[in-house]
DNA sequence: CTGAAAGCGCTTACAG
DNA sequence: CTGAAAGCGCTTACAG
């Protein structure tokens, strides 16, 4: 590996001068600068990041912690983050942990090792907030995605799950569905809980049938949506609509309806949440809530970068809530078609 | 940030001793070891990775380059890689680039900056192999995924797209479909090209209808599968089966068939490639080829780690081809159901 | 405009 | 078993 010494020797200058050329310092004679620049290219010299990090206490690297499930969801967000950071010459160090203990250990390693300048945490099922916040200690800026953790001087980015869920239930009720069931995504998942809360509140607000019988626990997979629907349709009276907490479960629900010889939406309206790319290509096309994952990632990257360039004293605590839009297609029984 | 000096001072030993404790050197008196260990915990000391990297020339970090499209495909692979590396105490630094020029620049930065100990490159649309190989220079071990680049001392992991595609066409022909169309995934994509090659060879081998009319270019999206199918069904005679180079396009094809009032599989058999999780939940359930993405990622991580622990002189050039299995469901018109 | 020297936080021969 | 010192590859005040 070529070092700054090799360059200095070949250019017959000191390493200080090479360093100045590298950093565009103005105090270098043009002739010297040219000579050194040429040799840097010749040798294909790239500065050693470890030496840089040690000396500057900045690594131009951002850490990204995410759960190892839900690949699609997180990969989209990650792409959004990456796109923004790449443009701004930063790298992403990822770590996906299995459980919360692992995650907290990883965060500790990330934060105190001088490895990263900022951290993005996706932890929808976080429970031990205390342990987490203790690790952080405001050493570096942090952005939380899809988890509500009251850490000072951090940014939190949330989806407006609650209101969109309410809106979706309202839409179904407007179409005459009064007995609306809900397939939950998991009680430890923040998004799932918020969607559920919106469903519950909407049910009472719009005076719909209320019963625990109408709620079934799923886990965001097609299979769980399928099973949940089979269970729900045994209720008496059976629901006239099913609101699944994500599209994958809605797809399982549609398949279950097919098996039960139920027509969707005539016998049973089914709606989802996420608006995955093939939602429009299902039969019937799925009514759902669009979630702009890339934009979420972009916002996270942007906010983090902003705070990384700020003095710790200047940082604020910020909360960004992304409004979501329902996408009305056929599966809810509406004739209306959205763009 | 706590340093080794803080620990040394507090424990009243030299930094050398702290270092020995940290590295489990046996030449430390138990009493000293205990005292130092206690203080390390007390101070929550984590060694600075930049100093470590500078000194050891190892960073316990692996680089991962991937295209910024196809989030799902790559996120699954990434999860497989990560799972394995996490267990072995390594981090992943990612970078997804827009085009090949960006990618090569990134690779150069990764390889010559002392940032990583190994590199995994997913570059299905790589064209400029020369530029790529020049960057590599055998500095660090490299694993290529889904691209055939003749770089010495590297590992290449490929899917057996070709034979599986042939097998799928054979299966359709066995079911009496003689006019089988193909929706291509993109001519610059390695997997797509191989699947296409298998299709072409199978067509002639099994004496099926051959015509350029039966091939349409798509781009791996539902929308392109939809459009391609609309175009294909205008042929005269129309195809009796469509082989889409991935599941997303197959889903688009099914929707197109629906619009055209064609029954699948009675009028038109449709098969895909990938076996995404909801393939089983489509109507009709999609016949496709299962691609074990996590396993692919796992193998990549494993191979890389193995080579990272080897002397450069001991490294070999390796090529791993992953066999793929068709999953026969309803959309091909077979009565047979696979597990 | 340029260089010698100190220092970032570690590790490791070397000496004791 | 332990410490003083050199060195990994950079940057930056300081002196000239």
Keywords for this entry:
434 Repressor (Amino-terminal Domain); 339 residues; 4-stranded parallel β-sheet; 3 domains; 6-stranded parallel β-sheet; DNA-binding; 43% helix; homodimer; Rossmann fold; alpha/beta
SSE layout:
Two copies of one chain form a homodimer.
Chain A: H1 4-11, H2 15-22, H3 30-42, H4 49-56, E1 61-67, H5 71-87, E2 91-97, H6 100-112, E3 118-122, H7 129-136, E4 142-145, E5 155-159, H8 161-174, E6 180-184, H9 190-205, E7 215-217, H10 222-232, E8 241-244, H11 247-259, E9 269-271, E10 288-290, H12 293-308, E11 318-322, E12 325-327
Parallel strand pairs in A: 1-2, 1-3, 3-4, 4-5, 5-11, 6-7, 6-8, 8-9
Antiparallel strand pairs in A: 10-12
The structure holds a DNA duplex (16 and 16 nucleotides).
């Amino acid at each position: 590996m070529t070092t700054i010494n090799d360059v200095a020797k070949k250019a017959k200058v000191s390493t200080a001068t090479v360093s100045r050329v590298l950093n565009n310092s103005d105090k270098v004679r043009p002739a010297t600068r040219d000579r050194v620049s040429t040799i840097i290219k010749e040798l294909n010299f790239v500065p050693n990041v470890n030496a840089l990090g040690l000396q500057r206490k900045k690594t131009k690297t951002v850490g990204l912690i995410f759960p190892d499930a839900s690949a699609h969801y997180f990969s989209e967000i990650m792409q959004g983050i990456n796109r923004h950071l790449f443009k701004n010459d930063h790298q992403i160090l990822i770590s996906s942990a299995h459980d919360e203990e692992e995650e907290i250990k990883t965060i500790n390693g990330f934060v105190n090792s001088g490895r990263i300048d900022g951290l993005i945490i996706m932890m929808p099922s976080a429970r031990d907030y205390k342990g987490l916040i203790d690790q952080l200690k405001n050493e570096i800026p942090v952005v939380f995605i899809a988890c509500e953790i009251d850490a000072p001087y951090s940014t939190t980015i949330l989806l407006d799950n609650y209101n969109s869920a309410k809106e979706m239930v309202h839409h179904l009720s407007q179409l005459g569905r009064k007995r609306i069931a809900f397939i939950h995504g998991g009680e430890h998942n923040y998004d799932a809980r918020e969607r559920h809360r919106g469903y519950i509140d909407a049910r009472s607000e719009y005076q719909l049938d209320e019963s625990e019988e109408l709620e079934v626990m799923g886990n965001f997979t097609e299979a769980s949506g399928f099973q949940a629907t089979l269970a729900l349709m045994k209720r008496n009276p059976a629901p006239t609509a099913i609101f699944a907490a994500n599209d994958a479960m809605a797809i399982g629900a549609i398949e279950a309806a097919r098996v039960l010889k139920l027509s969707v939406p005539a016998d049973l309206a089914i709606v989802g949440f996420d608006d995955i790319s093939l939602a429009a290509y299902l039969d019937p096309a799925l009514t759902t809530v669009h979630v702009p994952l890339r934009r979420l990632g972009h916002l996270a990257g942007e906010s983090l970068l902003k705070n990384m360039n700020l003095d710790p004293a200047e940082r604020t605590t910020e909360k960004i809530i992304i409004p979501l839009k329902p996408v009305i297609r056929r599966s809810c029984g509406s004739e209306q078609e959205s763009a």
